[in-house]
Design brief:
It is built from three helices and three strands. By secondary structure, the protein is α/β, with parallel strands linked by helices.
């Protein structure tokens, strides 16, 4: 049987998070996101698994990756930096990344 010429992996809802303590940074929806991180532990994603997950994706040999939101929980700069670091790790494995 012929192998497919192109393959794609779709990954969504990464939800990198960092608990926000500064009350001045808890404006608007960020306050609700912080409450979700604090009171709904089942919605917390194991950030420490990002690197092993990147390695697992690379091990599949598939080069096309579609990443869709949510990338963060409270939209802090630190969370976006974590998400960017994850994307950069995938790209360093030779993957072609598309963000949506």
């Amino acid at each position: 049987m012929d192998q497919p010429r192109d393959s794609l992996i779709h990954v969504g809802d990464l939800h990198f998070w960092q608990f926000v303590i500064n009350p001045f940074r808890l404006l608007n929806k960020r306050f609700l996101g912080n409450l979700n991180v604090l009171f709904r532990p089942t919605r917390q994603y194991a950030i420490e698994m990002a690197e092993p997950f990147a390695e697992s994706l690379a091990a599949t040999g598939i080069k096309q990756v579609l990443l869709t939101g949510d990338f963060t929980s409270t939209s802090t700069d630190a969370e976006f930096e974590m998400a960017r670091s994850f994307v950069d790790r995938l790209a360093s494995h030779g993957m072609d990344i598309t963000l949506l």
